[in-house]
Design brief:
alpha+beta, two-stranded antiparallel sheet, two-stranded antiparallel ribbon, 4 helices, 23% strand, globular
Length: 128
């Protein structure tokens, strides 16, 4: 997959594998063609009598010129964005917006509060 991305119309300035089947790319905006993206994210593998359709998803974070975020934060925003793809077969990508960040932070606060309440009700001690 990495090679397919490297030689694609995206012409990534940087490409890295973050996990087994997850990649992060730095792409010049002028190379990002959203109409071609679904075709790039759909791969067909044929081996003997088996045909496998693989569908990828893509979270997009546009980097502003006056960026102060760490690279890991930019990658996190692109990753969060993938959860906002309602139908990966119709439109396999989503573009980050600030509302997504606010929703994520609100969910994180709620989970943290819930975890704290549970730990107060059911205290546990761990020794390592």
């Amino acid at each position: 997959m990495a090679n397919a991305y490297q030689i694609s119309f995206l012409k990534p300035l940087a490409l890295a594998r973050t996990e087994a089947d997850k990649f992060v790319m730095l792409v010049d905006c002028k190379n990002l063609n959203l109409d071609k993206l679904p075709q790039l994210l759909h791969r067909i593998y044929d081996k003997q009598d088996i045909r496998i359709d693989l569908y990828g998803r893509c979270g997009i974070y546009y980097v502003p010129e006056d960026i102060t975020l760490q690279v890991s934060d930019m990658c996190d925003r692109a990753k969060i964005t993938k959860t906002y793809i309602p139908n990966q077969y119709v439109k396999p990508y989503a573009i980050f917006n600030e509302q997504m960040k606010e929703d994520y932070e609100q969910r994180s606060r709620a989970l943290l509060c819930r975890s704290i309440r549970i730990s107060i009700i059911y205290p546990a001690f761990y020794y390592t």
